[in-house]
Amino acid sequence: MKDPRYEKMAANLIDYSVKLKKGENLFIDVFGSDNLLARELIKKAYQVGGHPYVRVNDSKLSALLYKEVTEEQLVIMNESELAFMQKMDAYLGIRESDNIYESSIIPPSKGALISKILKPTFDERVKHTRWCVMRYPNSSMAQLSGMPTDVFEDFYFDVCNLDYAKMSVAMDNLVKLMESTDKVRLTAKGTDLTFSIKGQKAIKCDGEFNIPDGEVFVGPVKNSFNGKISYNTPSVSEGLTYENIVFEFENGKIINASANYLERINKKLNIDEGARYIGEFAIGVNPFITKPMKDTLFDEKIAGSIHLTPGQCYDESSNGNDSAIHWDLVLIQTPEYGGGEIYFDDILIRKDGLFVIDQLLCLNPENLK
After folding, report:
1. Could you tell me if 296 and 359 lie in one domain?
2. What is the pLDDT of residues 33-49, one digit of tens each?
3. Angle CA(36)–CA(41)–CA(44) in degrees, nearest 5?
4. CB burial class (10 A; 0-12, 13-18, 19+) of residue 74?
5. Cα 103 to chain centroid, rounded
6. Are residues 88 and 175 both part of a single domain?
7. Which of 16, 17, 18, 14 is nearest to 48 (CA)?
8. Is residue 126 located within the same domain as residue 240?
């Protein structure tokens, strides 16, 4: 039976997120099997006069391919994909996986090579198309969230079909405050970190680039980080679940990094010079996301969280950091996860996940649902 919520989501993605116009090319990149959302996107793209193109990816085949891939293969792949991407006006990526650990068979050295060689195609997509990336609900995703499949599907649509226009207006005050702030201090269990965002542009993520969405980010001053952060949210990367990640900073650089995979995390951070510097600082505000589910697109939007990202910065708020990685790592500061505070220029703006100053109360969960 047709679920009208997919039709609504497709309309939001085409009209609001990528704003597809008549005659424009749209790349629908499906990871997993053909699904209801992809079908609705094709229909909606044609309705507005666009030209949809579809690719269906198989995670098992991709993992086998990349396990022993050569640099020569990757160069040819990049040439082909880059030429295709340069003809696209918009991009929608639908991520679905029955097993998030499929890519664990890819050696770290291959993962680094893949990131390096395919980076021009990634940059073309991010910098020169109107893009949005989302997850697709399935039983595997429901299992990661700790919910029955039907309950998870309802949660998924609550999150993804949120009134993003309302959230966008509520974010304006945080944007203004971040752009007038110099010093940021983060505190939590095992965390006391200071850095600067002075003079940097703050960007609100209100449903145009990710679904679900709900964050405001900035490219922090690259060499300003000093102190320590202990992330309390697991992160799946390269088929491994990293936990208990701790970074120590000195003048912007991660000088010590530890996690359950000590050797692997340091190899990841040694891929290039920029990987040990931060490209993004963001504050999560999605009211429907309250706990981690090992999915970055959801976890980085958790209400009461922040994420601090080693690697590549975004052009929209550039701090000059360049890297083959962009690794969003999340610290939740709600009481259930140990609490914590955010200070802007020594003024407390959020405590235990809730904003405490008048101009930001509109971003607390009860005011966004």
Report:
1. yes
2. 768 999 999 999 999 99
3. 125
4. middle
5. 19
6. no
7. 14
8. no
Residue 47 three-state SS = helix
285-344 confidence digits (pLDDT tens):
999 999 998 889 899 999 999 999 999 999 999 999 999 899 999 999 999 999 999 999
| Neighbouring C-beta atoms of residue 363, cutoff 10 Å | 22
Q: Which domain holds residue 39?
A: 4-160
| Omega within 30 of 0 (cis) for the link into 212 | yes
Q: Distance between CA 289 and CA 43 in Å, rounded? A: 30
State the Cα–Cα distance between residues 338 and 190, nearest whole angstrom.
10
Q: Residue 67 is part of a domain; what is its CATH number? A: 3.40.1830.10
In terms of domains, do 196 and 113 share one?
A: no
Name the nearest CA neighbour of 299 among 244, 243, 233. Answer: 233
Instruction: Indicate the burial class of 118 (C-beta count within 10 angstroms; 0-12, 13-18, 19 or more).
Output: middle
Q: Is the dihedral of CA 360, 364, 367, 368 positive or negative?
A: positive
